[in-house]
């Protein structure tokens, strides 16, 4: 073979090639083995992720659903089956319906206020102005800050009499609310929303700025050549092209508002007089604090269903356009 | 092909879930180890308490050759979380802390706590009547080692400034003091209503003054709140609220964290008084830069008498911590608990200002003047009522506290408080 190989260098290569092809062909008639191997490979590589998901997502969901059908104090055997009683209690509890209302107020207010505000800031910061990098950073910093730290800082700023916010308001000659912004039930939720806007506006601006980078320069130029003003360019060219980004941001904002917990917990704990309870704070209050794990389980299932239905509806009705255009 | 992969993945997922379930379920052997090792959880994670308990454990080991005591000293909140998880799994340490009342009886019902009535009969006798909070159906399940009472801590200097010469003993006098303090431009009382339980303590006390001991004892047993006096309690609190005695923003004020908390406001001289337990001097010390708290300006008076109330004016609201032994723990664990309640260990406990000892032999060893005074008040009290939220159990207590917080916010009536408490109690039956 060796001398032949020297005389005809190309031959062995071709032979090898054919052998390899042959091997493939030889296996091909018995499809089971290859597929099984492939499947095993899939299972092997996917199983760590699946195991993690099973332990940390699927299992808790299953146990929450199971818990919601029992009256259980968090220890001892779970054997007091109560059927749908916990769901009945959750859905007829004024505090829970208030909590759902608060969640939806935040969902709507976030989109109505943060969307135009975020767009305006993004469009402005997209211009070539001095200190643009610095301004972008300033807008984005609150989002990077840990939520609990931001909450504690705001809690101190908003203290009645001794807080900075009260100081500023008094300094300009206005009277701050006597019980403070967080201690007055009517003001607590709006105050919460202001803090949330401060915290999350950065994300909206960042996403919109990224979206604006994707708008081709030629379109601006073409519009300008046609005599469009800066305002018209933004309104007719930039913002329509931002559509997919805006829709994605709305989705993220909606889900975040439904799950709202950290900031509320730090600032008010759901108070005063349940003025800022959300579904998540209701869960904690009933579950770990009240020892009513069944009710907390039922509330968490309700939260899951609300979130799931809204996410699905949003995907089907609004985001479908974006994903369809990709294909 | 795709659906098959999916099915395979699903199978893998199910298998994973089953393995996990098996792993969780199969841990019945309870990691207590052998009979010679005792695990002990406590919350004295600062000096001198931490070191003192280590020494106690060493002494116990020396007296019982071959025995090892494994201590886990944790911050209080960590311990509460860890205990909650331990109760769920049923894998408890041999010795742990119980707050008594409904919480304890739930644990007893679930078969998690060991009955020590006979084994520790001598110590139970020494502690006396206050062990009642840790008894279920006449059996004792834990030995209280520190019991404190709640009352008004006040700033003597600010009282003087406002021209108040004597601590109030009736509600009328308290209203009077509130008025005088306001006239002197001093915020009268701070309350951490944001945390709910400090607000609830007001209602507990007005109930304690409005209801007879018998009514309250019955209520703990039967969870029946139909007696008129419970509504009266809310009305008395309503009267106090009408004088607007609390600090600005009290509905969102927290109890103990930071200078703007209820304790912080008292410690820094921003308010004149606060209703709190025996922990208050210690908390205030931690909230002032010099570590002194109010120092010599610290004063204390009992919750005032309610005119026309059926309750005893000398009854006190309080609570404490007790050592409990988990079911299935070795006998040696009971011996260690008995040792912890001995004259010797309780005296050391008192000398280190770790709390208010329950063994009378340790009383003379309490050195802190504020605590020594409080000890006298406690021992002179006609009876010490366990905090209602603890006594009635977590679920009822939580519902009650929520509604009392609403009363303070002006969004619930005295009747609402009783109705909400009763509704939560009916769910328990």
From TrEMBL, chain A:
Q: Which residues cross the membrane?
A: 42-62, 104-125, 137-157, 187-210, 293-317
Which membrane topology term applies here? Multi-pass membrane protein
Q: Where in the cell is it found?
A: Cell membrane
GO biological process, alphabetically ordered: transmembrane transport
Superkingdom of origin:
Bacteria
Positions of region (Disordered): 1-33
The chain positions of domain ABC transmembrane type-1 read 100-314
List the record's Gene Ontology CC terms alphabetically: plasma membrane
Keyword annotations from UniProtKB, A to Z: Cell membrane, Membrane, Transmembrane, Transmembrane helix, Transport
Task: Please tell me whether the keyword Cell membrane is annotated for this protein.
Answer: yes
Family matches, as InterPro entries: ABC_transporter_permease, MetI-like, MetI-like_sf
Q: Which SUPFAM superfamilies match?
A: MetI-like
Q: Where is the major localization of this protein?
A: membrane
What Pfam families has UniProt attached to this entry? BPD_transp_1
Keyword Lipid metabolism: yes or no? no
Q: Which PANTHER family match?
A: ABC TRANSPORTER PERMEASE PROTEIN, INNER MEMBRANE ABC TRANSPORTER PERMEASE PROTEIN YCJO
Family per similarity comment: Belongs to the binding-protein-dependent transport system permease family.
What is the official name of this protein in its record?
Answer: Carbohydrate ABC transporter membrane protein 1, CUT1 family
UniProtKB/TrEMBL annotation, chain B:
Q: Which UniProt keywords apply?
A: Signal
Signal peptide boundaries: 1-23
Name the SUPFAM superfamilies for this protein. Periplasmic binding protein-like II (SSF53850)
Q: Specify the domain of life of the species encoding this protein.
A: Bacteria
Q: Does the keyword section mention NADP?
A: no
Q: Does this UniProt record's set of keywords contain Signal?
A: yes
UniProt xrefs under Pfam families: SBP_bac_1
* PANTHER family found in the cross-reference section: ARABINOSE-BINDING PROTEIN-RELATED, BLR3389 PROTEIN
Annotated protein name in UniProt: Carbohydrate ABC transporter substrate-binding protein, CUT1 family
Per the UniProt record, the source organism is Nocardioides szechwanensis
């Amino acid at each position: 073979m060796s001398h032949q190989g020297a005389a005809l260098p190309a031959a062995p290569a071709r032979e090898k090639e054919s052998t390899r092809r042959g091997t493939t062909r030889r296996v091909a008639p018995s499809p089971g083995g290859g597929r099984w191997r492939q499947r095993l490979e899939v299972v092997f590589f996917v199983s760590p992720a699946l195991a993690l998901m099973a332990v940390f997502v699927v299992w808790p969901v299953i146990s929450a659903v199971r818990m919601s059908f029992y009256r259980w104090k968090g220890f001892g055997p779970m054997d007091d089956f109560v059927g749908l009683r916990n769901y009945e209690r959750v859905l007829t509890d004024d505090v829970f319906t208030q909590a759902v209302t608060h969640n939806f107020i935040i969902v709507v207010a976030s989109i109505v206020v943060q969307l135009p505000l975020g767009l305006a800031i993004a469009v402005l910061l997209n211009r070539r102005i001095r200190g643009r990098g610095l301004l972008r950073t300033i807008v984005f910093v609150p989002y990077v800050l840990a939520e609990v730290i931001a909450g504690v800082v705001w809690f101190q700023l908003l203290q009645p009499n001794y807080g900075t916010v009260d100081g500023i308001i008094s300094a300009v000659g206005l009277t701050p609310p006597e019980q403070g912004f967080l201690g007055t039930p009517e003001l607590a939720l709006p105050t919460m929303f202001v803090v949330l806007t401060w915290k999350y506006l950065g994300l909206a601006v960042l996403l919109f700025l990224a979206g604006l980078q994707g708008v081709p320069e030629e379109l601006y130029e073409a519009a300008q050549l046609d005599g469009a003003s800066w305002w018209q360019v933004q309104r007719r060219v930039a913002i329509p092209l931002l559509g997919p980004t805006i829709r994605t941001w709305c989705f993220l904002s909606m889900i975040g508002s439904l799950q709202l917990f950290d900031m509320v917990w730090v600032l008010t704990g759901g108070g005063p007089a349940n003025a800022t309870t959300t579904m998540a704070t209701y869960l904690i209050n009933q579950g770990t604090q009240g020892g009513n794990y069944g009710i907390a389980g039922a509330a968490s299932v309700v939260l899951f269903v609300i979130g799931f239905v809204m996410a699905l509806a949003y995907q089907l009705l609004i985001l479908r356009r974006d994903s369809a255009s990709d294909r | 092909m795709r659906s098959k992969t999916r099915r395979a993945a699903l199978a893998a997922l199910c298998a994973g879930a089953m393995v996990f379930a098996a792993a969780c379920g199969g841990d019945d052997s309870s990691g207590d180890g052998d009979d010679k090792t005792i695990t002990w959880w406590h919350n004295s994670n600062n000096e001198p308490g931490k070191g003192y308990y280590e020494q106690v454990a060493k002494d116990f080991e020396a007296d019982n050759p071959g025995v090892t005591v494994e201590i886990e000293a944790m911050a209080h909140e960590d311990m509460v979380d860890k205990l909650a998880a331990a109760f769920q799994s049923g894998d408890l340490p041999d010795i742990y802390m119980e707050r008594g009342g409904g919480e304890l009886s739930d644990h007893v019902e679930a078969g998690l706590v060991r009955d020590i009535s006979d084994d520790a009969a001598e110590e139970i006798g020494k502690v006396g009547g206050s062990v009642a909070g840790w008894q279920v159906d006449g059996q004792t399940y834990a030995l209280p080692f520190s019991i404190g009472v709640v009352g008004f801590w006040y700033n003597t200097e600010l009282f003087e400034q406002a021209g108040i010469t004597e601590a109030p003993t009736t509600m009328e006098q308290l209203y009077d003091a509130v008025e005088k303090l306001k006239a002197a431009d001093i915020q009268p009382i701070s309350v951490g209503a944001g945390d709910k339980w400090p607000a609830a303590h007001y209602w507990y006390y007005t109930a304690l003054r409005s209801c007879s001991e018998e009514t309250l004892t019955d209520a703990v047993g039967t969870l029946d709140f139909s007696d008129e006096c419970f509504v009266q309690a809310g009305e008395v609190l309503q009267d106090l609220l009408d004088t607007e005695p609390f600090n600005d923003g009290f509905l969102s004020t927290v109890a103990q964290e930071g200078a703007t908390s209820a304790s912080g406001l008292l410690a820094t001289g921003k308010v004149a008084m606060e209703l709190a337990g025996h922990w208050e001097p210690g908390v205030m010390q931690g909230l002032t830069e010099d570590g002194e708290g109010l120092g010599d300006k610290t004063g204390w008076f009992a919750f005032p008498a309610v005119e026309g109330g059926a309750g005893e004016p000398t009854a006190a609201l309080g609570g404490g911590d007790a050592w409990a032994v988990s079911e299935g723990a070795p006998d040696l664990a009971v011996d260690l608990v008995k040792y912890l309640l001995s004259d010797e260990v309780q005296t050391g406990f008192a000398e280190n200002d770790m709390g208010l000892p329950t063994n009378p032999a340790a009383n003379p060893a309490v050195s802190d003047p504020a605590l020594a005074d409080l000890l006298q008040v406690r021992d002179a009290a006609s009876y010490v009522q366990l905090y209602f939220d603890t006594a009635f159990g977590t679920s009822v207590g939580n519902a009650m506290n929520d509604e009392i917080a609403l009363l303070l916010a002006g969004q619930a009536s005295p009747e609402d408080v009783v109705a909400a408490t009763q509704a939560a109690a009916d769910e328990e039956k």
